[in-house]
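Incident log, structure service

09:12 report received: a user says their structure output differs between two submissions of the same chain.
09:20 pulled the input from the user's history:
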Amino acid sequence: MRLFGRKRKDPEKTIYAAVTPQDDGTTAIDVRGQTCPGYLLAINQAMDSLEHGTTAKLLVDYPPCGDDVRAWCDEKGYRFLDFAQETENWAIIVQK
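09:34 re-ran on a clean worker, output below:
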């Protein structure tokens, strides 16, 4: 146990999105394991790299993010298409 000194940075707490093109023309953006505001920052950065008109499937495991992403889409001018629970996570479908 560390009582004094600097805390070590936890590698699981970094802001990161795994961006994977899918066979159906969509792009999966996986931010599972992150909470607010990290997942939203990671989604924003990943979406910036996509072409206009691209549909993205955001994979999240933090339930409150649906409302956050809906508001973020309104601000960015993206279309919020769907929010559905899958087996162990949620999928949010947005279009840039």
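09:41 both user submissions now match this output. Likely a transient worker issue. Closing.
09:42 reviewer note: Residues 65-76 form the longest helix (12 residues). The domain at 31-95 is CATH 3.30.110.40 (Translation Initiation Factor IF3).
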